[in-house]
Amino acid sequence: MTSLYAKELEVAQLAVQRAARLTKRVFHEKAKGTVSKDDKSPVTIGDFGAQALIIAALQHHFPADEIVAEEEAAQLRTDAPLREQIWDLVSTTQLDDVAAEGFLGGRIPGADAMLDLIDRGNSPGGARGRIWAIDPIDGTKGFLRGGQYAVCLALMVDGDVKVGVLGCPNLPVDDAAPLTADIGANQTDEGRGVLFSAVVGQGATSRPLGTGALAEGKKISMKPITEMSSATFCESVESGHSNQSDSAQIAQKLNITNPSVRMDSQAKYGSIARGAGDIYLRLPTSKTYQEKIWDHAAGDLIVREAGGQVTDTTGSRLDFSRGRTLAANKGVVAAPAAVHGQVLKVVQEVLGL
Ligand SMILES: Nc1ncnc2c1ncn2[C@@H]1O[C@H](COP(=O)(O)O)[C@@H](OP(=O)(O)O)[C@H]1O
Ligand SMILES: [Mg+2]
Ligand SMILES: [Mg+2]
Ligand SMILES: [Mg+2]
Questions:
Q1: Integer Cα distance of 132 and 153 in angstroms
Q2: What span, in angstroms and rounded, lies between the C-alpha atoms of 222 and 270?
Q3: Which residues have CB less than 5 Å away from ligand 3 (the ion)?
Q4: Are residues 151 and 244 in the same domain?
Q5: How many angstroms from the chain centroid is the CA of residue 80?
Q6: pLDDT for 35
Q7: Which of 220, 253, 281 is the last residue before a domain boundary?
Q8: Domain at 251, CATH number
Q9: DSSP string, 79-143
Q10: Which of 220, 248, 266 is the last residue of a domain?
Q11: CATH no. for residue 214?
């Protein structure tokens, strides 16, 4: 008997692997083609290209599904040189396993089709039906500085995350490797690249992020915390994304002395899910910011399937049914299930909740 969501999982893993291959090409071969979005955050040709390749695979297998993706093609429709740069990348990035590439549906017919695929990610989201969430490059700032980033894909059904996949090209392959923030300017790709996956009720796995067919996966689980004082926090590099002074106070109250490890992207969720770190805190820096569903959907499931609990700072589960944002939530507290309550209590004391 094939397990539930087996096909969705395979498509998602291979699509993420192919998109990650594109992002690595951008990092190594190309000027990154960075442009500023309306909110002043960066987006690169890698973000657009990876989104196009992922949506092409989803469109091939699940044409009726809705898609909520971070990027849109508007700017590319008026900027021909930028569009051509992206098309050049997209049209020449394949998996190097012929069967796997064929399974994803092969090439996109042309640059216009590519733009339309990118814009297929414009679903408003919501509580009904099958909706994919895509963050083609999460941690674009990390990507640009040679740090951590993640290619993120999740399937939600009626507002619940059922399948989650994270491709983390710059994390060590070895699940037992010590937690590192940046990979450093002169390090190579040797020994790096992990693909994390989870299906609801089926546990979480990691495998080397490859360039063709999928490698063998192995089960991952969070590390049990026996002494809170020896736990390690993961948090954003960007102080504008998570309040680092609040997290320092929380660490102090929990008698944690290890410095928190700062890394960009959902690599934080993957890292705690495999026991390389222990606790991921994302503490609001503003009253109005709403977290985006594509920044959390895959990581939320991977951590919960690895034995973790994920809530916001009020203790509610992340609610992916509200549209493109987590409109009902504030911040994120992710920790091994056994200690989540203890961590949340201190988070709430420090935040005055
Ligand atoms: N003020 C803010 N508060 C929280 N998250 C923010 C933010 N502004 C941007 N972000 C999100 O933070 C993500 C990166 O998270 P992290 O800090 O964990 O690396 C960004 O994803 P992208 O890089 O995909 O745009 C972006 O969506
Ligand atoms: Mg972005
Ligand atoms: Mg993101
Ligand atoms: Mg992004």
A1: 7
A2: 10
A3: 135, 138, 295
A4: no
A5: 29
A6: 79
A7: 220
A8: 3.40.190.80
A9: -HHHHHHHHHHHTT---SSHHHHHHTT-----HHHHHHHHHTTB----SSSEEEEEEEEE-HHHH
A10: 220
A11: 3.30.540.10
User: In angstroms, rounded to a whole number, what is the distance separating the alpha carbons of residues 58 and 177?
Assistant: 33
- Do 208 and 320 lie in one domain? The reply is no
Mean per-residue pLDDT for 266-276?
Answer: 98
Annotated binding site for Mg(2+): 70, 135, 137-138, 295
Residue among 249, 238, 254 at smallest CA distance from 335: 254
Total number of domains constituting the chain: 2
Within a domain: residue 90? yes
DSSP 8-state secondary structure symbol assigned to residue 155: E
The residue to mutate among 241, 303, 313, having the most atoms of ligand 1 within 8 angstroms of its beta carbon, is 241
- pLDDT reported for residue 160: 98
Helix (H, G, I), strand (E, B) or coil at 333: strand
In a domain, 88, yes or no: yes
306, part of any domain: yes
Q: What is the ipTM of this complex?
A: 0.99
What's the CA-to-centroid distance between 204 and ligand 2, angstroms? 26
Q: Is residue 180 part of a domain?
A: yes
The string of pLDDT tens digits covering residues 299-345 is 999 999 999 999 999 999 999 999 999 999 999 999 999 999 999 99
Query: Range of 314's domain?
Result: 228-351
Q: Does the pLDDT of residue 183 top 70, yes or no?
A: no
Residue 55 and residue 66: Cα distance in Å, rounded? 10
User: Strand, helix or coil at 35?
Assistant: strand
Mark whether 273 and 145 lie in a shared domain: no
Q: What phi and psi values does residue 163 have, to the nearest 5 degrees?
A: -135, 135
- State both tokens at 92: 């020449």
